[in-house]
Amino acid sequence: MDPSSSAGLTRGFQVALCTLTLTGFLELFCASKTVASLLKSKEGPSLYRACLRANLVNNLAIGPITYALATEFFVYKSDPDSGYSLIRSFTSALGLVVTHALGYHYAHSQMHRPQMYWAHKFHHAFAKHVTPSSANAVSVVEYAYAYMLPFVVGCAVCAPDERALLTAVAVISVNNLLIHTPALEVLPQQL
Fold it and tell me: What are the transmembrane regions (predicted)?
């Protein structure tokens, strides 16, 4: 294996572990009542197990491989003699966030059509009990198509450096978790 591919895979696992850690933190400290309510429902225990399994498969299998491939083929590797460009990094991170948003929006709208709803149906099982872990509780097809493919396309279009890629991934992942943490909706009122 090429050392840069190995480094990309390692970094992909690090990103996955950060995502899973934040998910667990939000689940434990901001959504424990919602999780308890879910577990008390008829299908709750099996649904929650499926949710956790999807988080592990998506974040620890698909995510790191996608990250490694994107960094290997599309991430800009600057010449050490040319220095780091904050402006280039910022604009490519912003471009990646916008490209991902457009790609995700398109994929999500496609999965609400009858022909593709099967790939998105699992995520809607959490409509009544929205937990942070439901953010990544999606089918493998949805995770690859709506979550990962827009990152790969964004990397191909924007050629971000690795800092820009990590920044964009963090912005998107954290926001995905926050919008799946309804308990935090009261914060603006309390501030």
Answer: 12-35, 56-75, 87-107
Element (H, E) at 158: helix 149-158
Q: What is the pLDDT of residues 103-159, one digit of tens each?
A: 999 999 999 999 999 999 999 999 999 999 999 999 999 999 999 999 999 999 999
- With a CB cutoff of 8 Å and minimum separation 6, the contacts of 62 are 140, 143, 144, 148
Taking a C-beta distance cutoff of 8 angstroms, is the pair 30, 181 a contact?
yes
Domain region containing 52:
3-190
Q: Six-digit token pair at 47?
A: 């649904």
Q: Compute CA distances 53 → 32, 49, 76, 118, 179, whole Å.
A: 18, 6, 33, 18, 21
Contact 18, 64 (CB under 8 A): no
| Number of domains the chain is built from | 1
